[in-house]
Design a protein that fits this description.
This is CYTH domain-containing protein. The chain has 192 residues and is an alpha+beta fold. It is built from five helices and twelve strands. The strands form three sheets. It has a six-stranded antiparallel β-sheet with strand order 6-7-8-9-1-10, with helices on one face. The chain has a four-stranded antiparallel β-sheet with strand order 2-3-4-5. It starts with a strand and ends with a strand.
Length: 192
């Protein structure tokens, strides 16, 4: 593992990916339909039809991103898509990671690991990037079977997932612990 990256996807940007996430959860994303709220129905561009009496709408913002709108009081909507849509955002993150990896020519697989879902983007040279989808649109990325600057080939994929919050290069990036020791000055590393 040559680096660790923490990425945050704070908004929905791809409706095709969202549709895959909604379908994966067993629901349907409807276009130009009525969303059921406590106060009545209102026509919305995109609606996630949920079982029971209330739905969630996907509302386009001025910047071209989308947010989830629903009656969050009570737990009706939350039991299906999570409080503030956190479960939906987790599946959106998984589908986004798979879509962006495939777009860049990587093969993909996924596995459940505790509460997280890990998407692995694998290159033909045997190296891989593990993308841990933690929920609420947060990713933790770490490469496997790759050292040095070669791991940066995955950085474009990491940037495509959202806003980079943290990016730490490990000793494997710098050629092992002995090389890393040479870069330390007065107890601090000279690298980012």
């Amino acid at each position: 593992m040559s680096h660790l990256t923490l990425v945050l996807t704070s908004a929905i940007v791809n409706l095709e990916v969202l549709s895959k996430a909604v379908s994966r959860m067993g629901f349907e994303l409807l276009e130009n339909d009525f969303c059921r709220y406590y106060f009545g129905k209102k026509r919305k561009d995109y609606v996630i039809r949920l079982p029971g009496k209330f739905d969630a709408a996907i509302v386009e913002m001025e910047d071209g991103t989308y947010r989830i709108e629903a009656d969050w009081d009570g737990d009706h909507v939350a039991k299906y898509i999570g409080r503030d849509g956190e479960i939906l955002l987790k599946y959106y993150a998984v589908e986004l990671a798979k879509s962006e990896a495939i777009k860049r020519g990587y093969s993909v697989s996924e596995r459940q690991e505790g509460a997280a879902i890990v998407v692995t983007a694998r290159d033909t040279d045997g190296s891989a990037l593990h993308i841990e989808c933690l929920g609420s649109g947060t990713f933790r990325c770490q490469p496997e079977h790759i050292a040095g600057e070669a791991c940066m080939k995955y950085f474009e994929l990491e940037k495509a997932l959202g806003d980079i919050q943290e990016h730490h290069k490990t000793s494997a990036f710098w050629g092992g612990q002995s090389s890393l020791e040479k870069l330390r000055v007065q107890g601090r590393y000279l690298c980012g």
